[in-house]
Amino acid sequence: MFTNFFNSAPNKYYHKVQGGIRYRFNNRFSMDINHSHETETDYIIYAGREPNNEPIVSFVDFRDISTLMTGIYNFTPRINLSLRARHYLSVVKFNRLANVDLKGNTIDKPGNRRYDNVNIFNVDAFFTWDFRLGSRLVIGYKNWLGENEIVNPIGKNTYIRNLSQTFRLRHGKEFTLRFIYFLDYNQLRKKR
User: Fold this and answer.
1) Rounded to the nearest 10 degrees, how much is the dihedral formed by the CA atoms of 142, 86, 152, 64?
2) Domain-by-domain residue ranges, the chain?
3) Tens digit of pLDDT for each residue in 153-177?
4) How far apart are CA 166 and CA 151, in angstroms?
């Protein structure tokens, strides 16, 4: 899907591109890759309030890029391993600040340009065994970018460079074990 939007405002530009592909290697293994890229210039966001309670807005350029890769391998019809890796990057460049008058018009005000950068990276793997109807054992592994880890948004921060810097940062890790067992009340009652 591709969307492109031009407005009468001279600095306004918007586009969104997204696509994906799924490939089934054989009856047991398949993979999906989905990618999305969205950009808008001169986007208006709420930026807080003045000490006298006057609202402040900011005109920003933003870029959101997301890639999701999933794979599943079926050992048997009831035993499978699934893997999902996701990287999300959002870069917001603050261009200018403005106050808003009672008619909704903006009045430019001085302010520093700054960048905000949000990175989300995680890998999830789940081994699932459905050992009887309604009952299963799930062993999970999760790896995610640490909460206080930041990739510098300034400079030549391309998506590929950002992703490679993400691998060098500290990651959180978690192992889980879930055991779900279905008790059929009707079967228990018949045994009496």
Assistant:
1) -150
2) 2-190
3) 665 667 777 777 777 788 888 999 9
4) 7
